[in-house]
Amino acid sequence: MLLRRARELALVPALLLLLLLGALVNDSFLTERNLISVLGSSAALAMVVLAESLVLITGKFDLSLESVVGIAPALGALLVLPVAQAGFGTEWPAALALLSILATGAVLGAFNGVLVVKFKLNAFIVTLAMLIVLRGLLVGATEGKTLFGLPESFYTLATSTFIGIPMSVWVAAGAFGAAGLMLKYHRWGRALYAIGGNPEAARAAGIRVERVMLGVFVAAGVLAALGGLMQTGYVGAINANQGQNMIFTVFAAAVIGGISLDGGKGTMFGALTGVLLLGVVQNLLTLAQVPSFWIQAIYGGIILVALMIARVTTGRAQD
């Protein structure tokens, strides 16, 4: 128990060490502007990590979340844009288009959940197929173009601030806080851990396993769609590659944050520190002008190290 707890808290001194290293490497690293930039650029990732963490705790996977990050806001944009700007020409009100983004995430999450929970299909294969399908739909719907000229409300989460910090950061922090309290104190949260630990025992204890797991997939889809909206506001546009390869970073953040790939273990605090750690690492590498492909290689190395640490701290083999 102490080893597992230490695994989650180990990222805190690691973060402090990276902050110290960054201050030594680059004078602008610890400036208020740069630190806020790190938080702002990590907000969308944080929402997807939160979504994936909830699914992982139940012992399942959802690889399609990176495609939801792209397709959900793109659909909202296409519904609100005129034909002249590559939209569908429906020109929906911005508020309705924003609701459609969250609805798209919920529908896609429900579809994944039905295939995995009701039809008993392998979650890894199902969501991998959905990742590919949704990526193709995104490219086809946008015709490979970048969507500009969106209503200001599409950018609000990233551009509006409260005490100098983007609203997207506050929303992500609030979502992690709410999820952490739910997992620790609410019966639904305890049910997630029980299902991830032993679904048959959870079912015998009276937990409606199928209903809870379906709800997790829906919630994950909504969170990923919201993360996609944050990403849209941060970038200022939507392109056909939005969210591509994001799932690797998501898994890296979740795993190094202590979320078990075997299910039933992990906390939101650990997942959040994983997000912050990768955000700081990426910022450091960017300031050092390290090419992006090396950043991906470093993320892969971080995952491998985290898996080895998990093997030691849990004391059991990983399937």
TrEMBL record:
<keyword id="KW-0997">Cell inner membrane</keyword>
<feature type="transmembrane region" description="Helical">
    <location>
        <begin position="35"/>
        <end position="56"/>
    </location>
</feature>
<feature type="transmembrane region" description="Helical">
    <location>
        <begin position="293"/>
        <end position="313"/>
    </location>
</feature>
<feature type="transmembrane region" description="Helical">
    <location>
        <begin position="268"/>
        <end position="287"/>
    </location>
</feature>
<feature type="transmembrane region" description="Helical">
    <location>
        <begin position="243"/>
        <end position="261"/>
    </location>
</feature>
<dbReference type="Pfam" id="PF02653">
    <property type="entry name" value="BPD_transp_2"/>
</dbReference>
<dbReference type="InterPro" id="IPR001851">
    <property type="entry name" value="ABC_transp_permease"/>
</dbReference>
<keyword id="KW-1003">Cell membrane</keyword>
<feature type="transmembrane region" description="Helical">
    <location>
        <begin position="123"/>
        <end position="142"/>
    </location>
</feature>
<feature type="transmembrane region" description="Helical">
    <location>
        <begin position="68"/>
        <end position="88"/>
    </location>
</feature>
<feature type="transmembrane region" description="Helical">
    <location>
        <begin position="162"/>
        <end position="183"/>
    </location>
</feature>
<dbReference type="GO" id="GO:0005886">
    <property type="term" value="C:plasma membrane"/>
</dbReference>
<keyword id="KW-0812">Transmembrane</keyword>
<protein>
    <recommendedName>
        <fullName>Autoinducer 2 import system permease protein LsrC</fullName>
    </recommendedName>
</protein>
<feature type="transmembrane region" description="Helical">
    <location>
        <begin position="94"/>
        <end position="116"/>
    </location>
</feature>
<comment type="function">
    <text>Part of the ABC transporter complex LsrABCD involved in autoinducer 2 (AI-2) import. Probably responsible for the translocation of the substrate across the membrane.</text>
</comment>
<keyword id="KW-0813">Transport</keyword>
<feature type="transmembrane region" description="Helical">
    <location>
        <begin position="212"/>
        <end position="231"/>
    </location>
</feature>
<comment type="subunit">
    <text>The complex is composed of two ATP-binding proteins (LsrA), two transmembrane proteins (LsrC and LsrD) and a solute-binding protein (LsrB).</text>
</comment>
<dbReference type="GO" id="GO:0022857">
    <property type="term" value="F:transmembrane transporter activity"/>
</dbReference>
<keyword id="KW-0472">Membrane</keyword>
<keyword id="KW-1133">Transmembrane helix</keyword>
